[in-house]
Amino acid sequence: ENSGSAVANFSIPCEDTWYLWARAYVPMAYNPPNTFSFALDWGGFTTWDLGPPTGNQWDWVQAAGTSDWSEVIPAGDHGLTVNGGASSGGGTSDHPYLGTVVITNDPAYNP
After folding, report:
1. Which candidate, 30, 68, 74, places its Cα nearest to that of 48?
2. CA angle centred on 90, ends 46 and 65, rounded to 5°
3. How does pLDDT run across 15-65, given as a tens digit for each residue?
């Protein structure tokens, strides 16, 4: 079961390779896979693996599946859809959370 979804519209100033980061919170009681899924306006959904719980704190996490995610995105207006993380059955308190989302064309960026 997913805890919902969110859509964010954004504008890209130039075609380039872009990287996605977000502040994530994975409750210690949550059982893996600790994932969300996300899609840009023209593509299918990609699994965003948040990794293991980090001690009940918010941490910056780069969008990743089996490797860090990046995409060549053309200039213009776009949309990002994020589907909520799956519950392990313990109610809403066991869902992973995403906060601020950042998209950057700097491959060395690390918030």
Report:
1. 68
2. 15
3. 999 999 989 887 766 565 678 889 998 788 888 888 776 667 888 888 875
Is residue 87 within 8 Å of 3, Cβ to Cβ?
yes
**Bridge pairing between strands 5-12 and 58-62:** unpaired
pTM, two decimal places: 0.80
d(CA 30, CA 89) in angstroms, rounded, equals 10
Q: How far apart are CA 86 and CA 2, in angstroms?
A: 5
Residue 6, token pair as written in the block: 């969110």
Residue 68 has what pLDDT?
Answer: 75
Burial 13-25 (b: 16+ CB within 10 A, else e): eeeeebbbbbebb
**Amino acid, single-letter form, for residue 111:** P
Residue 85 and residue 32: Cα distance in Å, rounded? 10
What are φ and ψ of residue 107, in 5° steps?
Answer: -65, -20
